[in-house]
Amino acid sequence: MKLKVSSVLAGSSPERQGYLLKKGSRNHASYQRRWFLLWGNLLFYYEKQGDPQPLGIIVLERCSVSLRHSRQEYAFSLYSLSRVYKMAAECQKDLELWVKALFSANVGYTKALLDEVRGQYQILNAGDNGPNTKCPQENTWKADFGALHHWLGEEILPLRAKNITES
């Protein structure tokens, strides 16, 4: 199947992009320098920057990332449901930025963050007449992060300001 990445992701820019070293899937494979683009929870990799078609796509849903000990500096592993990807950044700063971006792209991280925000909202709202029933419920808003972001801006910021003035 040929995927036209430019049309699928038109109008958006990647959360992170740059070169990483990716180890091949064979046991004694060497690292290859590849151009990576992170869009949401999809990680595209290309032979080089500007290539029209990716060599592969890694779906980051339920993935985990960890630093690893290796002869290769700045190494980390990306654990997907089907495979372990051994990668390395070219410097410490890139390592930190990529690991953070990959960790944040995981759906589980987003759900944990949402749960934390909901908890903070309930704490801030405890002094009022109860929680606002306009809150989009988990089963109704699904993946509409734009609506949730808008709602949180309307509800939490005034409560935070109220809490600060009372302190």
- First and last CA, distance: 60 Å
pLDDT < 50 runs, ≥5 residues: 139-143
Helix and strand element order: HEEEEEEEHHHH
What's the total count of β strands?
7
| Count of discrete alpha- or pi-helical segments spanning 4 or more residues | 5
Shape summary = elongated
Which whole number gives the mean pLDDT?
A: 79
Strand order of the largest sheet: 4-3-2-1-7-6-5
Question: Assembly state here?
Answer: single chain
Using the CA coordinates, give the radius of gyration.
20 Å
The fourth-level CATH homologous superfamily of the largest domain is Pleckstrin-homology domain (PH domain)/Phosphotyrosine-binding domain (PTB)
Estimated share of beta-strand residues: 15-25%
Secondary-structure class: alpha+beta
Q: How much helix, percentage-wise, in residues?
A: 25-40%
By CATH, the topology of the largest domain is PH-domain like
**CATH class (first level) name of the largest domain:** Mainly Beta
Features:
alpha+beta, PH-domain like, 2 domains, 7-stranded antiparallel β-sheet, 7 strands, 38% helix
